[in-house]
Amino acid sequence: MKGDGSEHLCLILLLLHQTSVSRPERFQVVGPADPVDAVAGEDVVLPCYLKPSISAEDMHVEWIRLQSTETLVHLYQGKENRNEKQIPSYRGRTALFPEELKKGNTSLRLTGVRGSDDGEYKCFVQSQTWYDDASVQLRVRAVGTEPVISMEGYREGGIGLLCESKGWHPEPELIWLDSEGHSLPAGPTETLRDSMGLFIVRRSVIVQEGDTTRFTCQVLQQQLNQEKETEFHIPAEMFQRAHPWKVAFSVFFIPAIIGLAVLIHCCVKLCKE
Predict the structure, then answer these.
(1) Rounded mean pLDDT for each run of 10 residues along the chain, 273 residues in total
(2) Tally of structural domains, the chain
(3) CB 86 within 8 A of CB 99
(4) Three-state secondary structure call for residue 259
(5) Strand 173-177 with 158-168, pairing
């Protein structure tokens, strides 16, 4: 009976061992619950972990961009980085943490953050028997320059002004104001992107003499709670050049009236004599 009990015990242990070996090693990929904020030009880490904290050294780790025509941001496969098909704008800017892979840390380091990096990412991890993924939202923030105002010359009986501000993310709102703080009707805002993927905004306005001589260009970014403005003063005499007939009137008509008045005065004087 003693021998039979030992055999049964060995059989049970063997079955348990085989079951544990054949059972897939499951894990969960966990990302941050909230978006990750990054300042343009600085570095950022997109968090991603395995739960439980098992080693990911022998696994396939892939970071991709969602809602993009090109998707591959970083690929770790066969214990090495394989970034031949990486999106060109990410080349030389991405890295995992080799020592942290042993702890199940598959976070991505992104250097020199650009405005074009803003968006949703997916962290995908796959072993021989299991896979899972998690999404990470990256929000890029950048406060732009003070608006710069320049004159575009005389237009439509007024003076054209152009306002420009650079280096914003997200895109700001640009408005023109008169001296009383009232919004002026202006042209559409022109939006461009610089080499860092940050926004350049421009907007023109044609101001008239009746709009006073002091104007303000204001740039607003509500998400960043940022507001910048620049004031511009136009001398009143400059508006006269916007109306050629006024210039002609002052040059020809007024001297003519003065001359006529002198002539009449002389005639009256002669008549009296």
Answers:
(1) 49 44 73 97 98 97 93 97 96 97 98 97 97 98 97 88 98 95 95 97 90 88 96 82 48 53 62 62
(2) 2
(3) no
(4) helix
(5) unpaired
